[in-house]
Amino acid sequence: MNALRADPVLRRVIDRIGPCRLKLERNRFRALSESILYQQLAGGAAVAIARRFEAIWGRWPTPSQLAAVPARKLRAAGLSRQKLSYMRDLSTKVLEGSVRLDRVGRMDDERVVECVTQVKGIGRWTAEMFLMFCLGRPDVFPLGDYGIQQAMKKLYRVRTPAGMSRIAERWRPHRTAAAWYLWRAIDEK
Q: Residue 37, class by beta-carbon neighbours within 10 Å (0-12 exposed, 13-18 middle, 19+ buried)?
């Protein structure tokens, strides 16, 4: 974390916000399926759909439980046809073994991205969030994230991805924590 504190701009953010508190989701299937469910939805709507989705089983489903439930039940819970197809694709790929969630913990970051982006509806951003908030990888910097970009513009007055990337290089090997602080900084009033 000394790399983060060596940056005077980030040091002020850290001093204001306090200790980094990354909360990890240990259920890998849940992390990915929940990411699909929450895509392009406002917070309240996403939470309501997630609750109805989870209520079908009384807890978050396993891949086989999700694959077995009729589409009409998932649609009634609020899943769009597209999200339903993404969820089914994730379940199928996990069940058939082309996406081995039991092995991703032993893969390097880029291999994890390649593995999970095989699933329809999962792109690089979702894969990076999975690395950070499920696998707890310490050196992920989601440069494509809108909140990160806004924080970098606000705090560092840098506008280009290349400039943002150069600044983020200073924070290795703690770029996940740096991203967490940037999100908190942009959330501050």
A: buried
Backbone angles phi, psi at 177, to 5 degrees: -65, -40
Q: How far is it, in rounded angstroms, from Cα 143 to Cα 128?
A: 10
The dihedral sign for the CA sequence 145, 147, 149, 152:
negative
List of long-range contacts for 102-110, beta carbons under 8 Å, 24+ apart: 104/28, 104/135, 105/135, 109/137, 109/139, 109/140
Number of H helices, E strands in the chain: 12, 0
pLDDT digits (tens, 9 = 90+) for 85-133: 999 999 999 999 999 999 999 999 999 999 999 999 999 999 999 999 9
Name the pTM for this structure: 0.91
* From the candidate CATH numbers 3.40.190.10, 1.10.10.10, 3.40.50.12280, 1.10.1670.40, the one assigned to the domain spanning 2-22+141-187: 1.10.1670.40
Amino acid at position 49, single letter? I
Whether CATH 3.60.20.20 fits 28-133: no
DSSP state of 104: G
